[in-house]
Amino acid sequence: MRIGFLGVWLILQGIAAVGQVSSPAPLQPASKLDRPGSASRSPREIKHVAEAQIPVTSLDFKPKGPITGTGASQAFVLPVLCSPRGIPYVSFIDQKSFGVQTVSSLDPKGGRQFSITSIPGLYDPVFGADSVSDSMVVMLVNGTKDRTKAPNSVSLGPGMPSKAVFTGEHRNYVAEFDSSGGFKELLELSADYHFWRIGLLPDDSILALAYDRPNAVPKLLLLDSDAQLVRSIEIPSDLQNSPALVEGRSGDISKQAPAESSISWWLFAPVRGKILLYQAHTKLPILEVGAGGVVREVPLEIPKDFVIDTIIPSEDRWIIRVRRENLSDKTEIDARPEAKNYVLYEVDPSDGHLRRELSVSSGPLFSIACEQGGTFTAFGIDGDKVNLFTADLAR
User: Which CATH code, of 3.40.50.300, 2.120.10.30, 3.90.220.20, 3.40.50.720, is assigned to 2-26+41-392?
Assistant: First the structure.
C-alpha cells in the first residue's frame, strides 16, 4: 500500500479548524532522550528504546465481509474514531465538495450515516471533528442560522458544482445525533474561541480544543453536557511552547494564522474510558484526560528515528503507531508493513514503556481503526464498498 499526497495521507489532520482548511506549521523538535535503563526518569523526559529489546506479536487480519447501509470514499479523515463497543466511525471525504458531509459507522450488523446536511435551521454547515459514545455521535460544525444568501454563488473549482454563499454570522456548534443517525440537538459554543476538536468523556462532559485568537493561545476546555464552559485545563508546556505557537504570541499578525493551524496536529484518541491528547509527528508526552477533567501526563518510549503517528482507539490498551521521523507529507509514502515506515506498538499506560511490537503479518496496517477485548478491527475500500477485517491479539 502506498499513500500519496492527494490520497488518504493528505487527509490526516487535513480538516483543520471548523470553517477552514490549513496546512500544519513546523513541529516542535523532540527533547533530548535518556538511554534505556537510566536511573533518572523525569516525567518531562522521553527515552529511546532499541527495537531488538521489544518482544513481537503477530496480527493476522482476516476478512469479515462488507458493510451495508453506508457509502465510501478513497479519502477519509484520520485518525478514525471508534465507539466503546469497538465500532469504527469514519469521516469520508465528499469528492464533489472536498469536504466531509457524513460520518459513517462501520457496524457489521449494518452501517449508519450521520450527516451535517440533516441539521435543521443550520445553513452552510462545515464539518470540523466528531466524537462517539455507544448512544450518540457529536459533531463539531460551523454554520449560520441566517438563511440570507448573497446574490451570486461561488465555484469550488473546475468541474465542481457552484455553492451558495450565506452572508449571516457563522458560529461553532456541537451537533448531537442518536445512534441510529437521527439529529437530536444543536448546541451553540462560546464565541470567545475558535474550536478545533471535541471529545466525549464518560461523565457526559465534553473536552474541547480551541484557540483564543485575541490572545493568540491554544485552550483545552472542559464543557458540560450542554456545551457550556466549566473550566480550562492546563496545557503541558511542551505543547504550548512549540516554535509556531511562540511566534504566534510575538505580536506579528502574519505569524498568528500559522500558529493556530499548528494545533491541527493536536489529536484526541478515546482510550480506556478517557481521552488522550497527543501531537502527531513528535515524541512529546501524552496528556490523559478523564471524567471531570482529571489529567495525567505520560512520557513515551519511542524507537530511535521514529515519532508518534497515531493512537488507536482501544477499550483497555494503549496502542500507538509510530512512523519514521524523516518521512515527507508531500510525496508518496510506502505504507506496507514490510517497509517498516510505520510500526505498531502496545504501550504500558502506567509509565509509557513499550510492551511489545504488533507485527501485521497480513492485512491492512494503515487502516486499523480500533481494538476491543483483544480484537483489532480494520477496514478497506473496494470501489464504493467498505470491507471489514479483524485480527485477534494473543495474550
Answer: 2.120.10.30
